[in-house]
Amino acid sequence: MKKLIAGNWKMNGTQDSARALIEQIETGITPEIAAACDFVICPPFPYLSTAVKQVATIAVGGQDCSFYNNGAYTGDVSASMLNDIGCTYVILGHSERRQYFHETDEGVATKAANAHAAGLITIICVGETEAEREQGRQESVVAEQLKGSLPKGWTAENTVIAYEPVWAIGTGKTATAQDIAAMHAFIRTQLGSDTTRILYGGSMKPGNAAEILATPNVDGGLIGGASLKAEDFLSIAKAA
Length: 240
Ligand code: PGA
Fold this sequence. Notes:
Elements: E1 3-8, H1 15-28, H2 31-36, E2 37-42, H3 48-54, E3 59-62, H4 79-84, E4 89-92, H5 95-100, H6 105-117, E5 121-126, H7 130-134, H8 138-149, E6 159-163, H9 177-191, E7 197-201, H10 206-213, E8 220-223, H11 230-239
Parallel strand pairs: 1-2, 1-8, 2-3, 3-4, 4-5, 5-6, 6-7, 7-8
Helix pairs in contact: 1-11, 6-8, 8-9, 10-11
The structure holds 2-phosphoglycolic acid.
2-phosphoglycolic acid binds next to strand 8.
């Protein structure tokens, strides 16, 4: 399986910085890297359309989409709109959405069903908090999130899972390779699928990427902070 290197830009950048970052990333993807990795970048909504027009080889995705398909839902962006402008992926259920925007598993499943119907590949995020890990509940928490967030009829083709321990996101802390291996094996069993990509996310950086990406059942990374610097993003891909 080729590794999927996904960049979650979150709410960062400007039109100009987005253009420059895409140009630097694409210039840096050597044939060797392209043979080992697929790429997707997820810029903020306003920059998606120009990103789609600019990219030559990498995919573009949204960071979220609406529960609804169209209509009077002020401020929302639907999965079919993302598809319409040329996006092929959407991140759903990121812990920041769950934490700050009160997203639930059920809501994530509704969004994912819409996204699949619109032809998008979903990157569905799961992961425990620090307190849940301290209580030894990480597996039950993740199992419940998977059960609740995956829509009926999901397939290995339209769904990617991102395991992101909440305490590792943007904190510089990463799970140990052993913990990652255990959780990814657990997720693989829960999914009952050998071909679904399972990404790791949470403070993935050039310095730890080689070890993480070599861990069994780690099929790529969902990268936040380090995806905003072409050099770091590409080093992570090189490590794969
Ligand atoms: P981070 O973010 O790499 O900055 O920890 C990962 C993510 O939130 O997807």
